[in-house]
Amino acid sequence: MTLDERLIQTVPSERQIRHQQLGFYAFIHFTVNTFTDREWGDGSEPPSVFAPTRLDAEQWVKVIKSAGMKGLILTCKHHDGFCLWDTKLTDHNAMNSPCGRDIVREVSDACKKHGIAFGIYLSPWDRHSPLYGMGKAYDDYYVGQLTELLTDYGSIFSVWLDGACGESADGSGRKQYYDWERYYSVIRRLQPDACISVCGPDVRWCGNEAGHTRASEWSVVPLRTRDTEKTAERSQHEDSADFRRRINAGDEDLGSRQALENEHELIWYPAEVNTSLRPGWFWHESENDKVRSLDELFDIYLSSVGGNATFLLNVPPTNEGLIHPNDAARLAELGRLIADSFAENIAPEAEITADGNAIDCVKTDSTDEYYMSERENAEIVIKLPRKEKLGYLVIKENIRLSQRVESFAADVMEGGICREIYRGTVIGYKRIVPLGGAAADGLRIRITDSRSKPTVAFIGVYRQAER
Predict the structure, then answer these.
(1) 14: CB partners within 8 A, 6+ apart
(2) Number of domains in the chain
(3) pTM beyond cutoff 0.85
């Protein structure tokens, strides 16, 4: 079997497709660190420090929804071992704090009420538990916690597992060798629709925490990529500027033909871009004026959601238990900018042809019908009814038939004259092509190389929005 034949036989699961369709979703980091002004707790913090006075999970959900996010992943337990739910396995939890409330329950209920998908983060490293580093005894404890979260709080869209694996809390130097396969089997049994992210088989980490994305983010990658974060030596040290640096050039290409030619086993393993709205993952009063700019956030959105990845943006509540007004205002601005930028799709008014034949099926955002070229290249012409100032072109492949396009270009047309405006590699689930307000009466998409007959499931052409 040729490489291209193996490539196009590597396809996503339905859970992976549903996850990618979310596009943009939130991380909520909230634990004892919020009250101790730290990023990583050491497990010695007493529950008494956890004392939010105005905790409002519904406010969190309304704020992230205002940004256009479709999901929320809550840090139910970070490395400090403090649990945000009514666990029966340890007293080190929110029920025994001044808060005295099951925060996981409140967030899950608020998400359900407002139509937001709910996910969980449960750190395998527990700096409080005396069982940590004791092998099966700790794995039993961790699986017990997973079981509580996956059975008592409704539907879960994501179980987010990182690879942090430091020493035990008692100073003995013990480390735990996590039984990943056991964790996965529990998740699959209890929440079969949930994607297991980062240290898991469904969604991979993009490789940095700064919001930077690869120019070519392939979904078909070597099978061995799946084990990269399980060792995660870098994740065993506290976050630093060095850790958040851009990924190394050697990691830039994970899935081109050249990168895969000597790989024997391939998987569908799409990328997630995760970063924080502020410099830290947890709220710090000193960072109230350090919220990312609107332009920076929108650029990350375009390059992640619009670059065949998903975007996980952390939003840390304050020690009162609310999203800070500065954060809330910026997220509302971002939501308005995204909505305005993609408000007016004029493709349904256009004449769209390939090889001289109409392909109206691409005007509908669905994989039920799609265009497939008879060749391994294709030319799609979009004739607009009038000259327009154009903001963005959106192209989607039918990823149910894998990721096929290896390279493409986009041209703007005016009076029959074509001018190349963009050249790229990956399309995948979604590629957003910036058109920069170019005045045109048409567009041309040239698929210049493909792994097999290329597919296009959707084309959107969006008017330039006023800012």
Answers:
(1) none
(2) 2
(3) yes
